[in-house]
Amino acid sequence: xxxxxxxxxxxxxxxxxxxxxxxxxxxxxxxxxxxxxxxxxxxxxxxxxxxxxxxxxxxxxxxxxxxxxxxxxxxxxxxxxxxxxxxxxxxxxxxxxxxxxxxxxxxxxxxxxxxxxxxxxxxxxxxxxxxxxxxxxxxxxxxxxxxxxxxxxxxxxxxxxxxxxxxxxxxxxxxxxxxxxxxxxxxxxxxxxxxxxxxxxxxxxxxxxxxxxxxxxxxxxxxxxxxxxxxxxxxxxxxxxxxxxxxxxxxxxxxxxxxxxxxxxxxxxxxxxxxxxxxxxxxxxxxxxxxxxxxxxxxxxxxxxxxx
Length: 308
Description:
Jelly Rolls, Arc Repressor Mutant, subunit A, 2 domains, 6-stranded antiparallel β-sheet, 4-stranded antiparallel β-sheet, Homeodomain-like_sf, HTH_AraC-typ_CS, HTH-like
């Protein structure tokens, strides 16, 4: 127990930079006891708390907020504040302390100020992970300057997540906003598949990168394009292969590898299924005369037009 807490963990930046736009001073996690309070007092740094569980109250500039799991409250330097854990459901929270000449602009950019000092619905796997990374990077014995650099990156990612939460709130969580967000993530997936088609692609990894569960992303993708992500990817690969067969003298094995398919026999099988010809037959037909558009060419690159 530490100063009215059931547990209290804190990691301090051993080498904070001076004069930067953003610098992390320390980060931690704690579970206060019932009715534990801080203030009224002031700090000379920015201090952001994200509530993990329970309840509490936070006051600044004469306004009192009732905070619960998922809310983040922001203490501004030189501003008188007060906060207290609930009597029956005392909160637990994580925090990060920041300084820097760019902090006011960064917080303004995400819609936060002493007059609007609480952001709701900020807790997710990303924010939890960023807080954990902040604490972990300060526990490294070697290269404190690099730990300081790393901490600044995690802090910026945290602020980005808080900004996204504020934006979702401003959109109102209505159907139109949900559709817009769904279309956006499908466009991101299409862009990823269209650019990374030459590499081995895991839909699980792509989903995690975009912050969606695989099943949910695949459902959104099929609703928007009529295809699963893997079907869309195969169309992209076949369209690229057709172009390479037409414009280069590369072998079938080289073309298969260039479009992300390591097995030339598997590539040939898929190509025949799409075009009705083997790659060699397709190339020969191109050399002998005009070729009609194949099913792959007609289908492969048009589905993003359906995303409004």
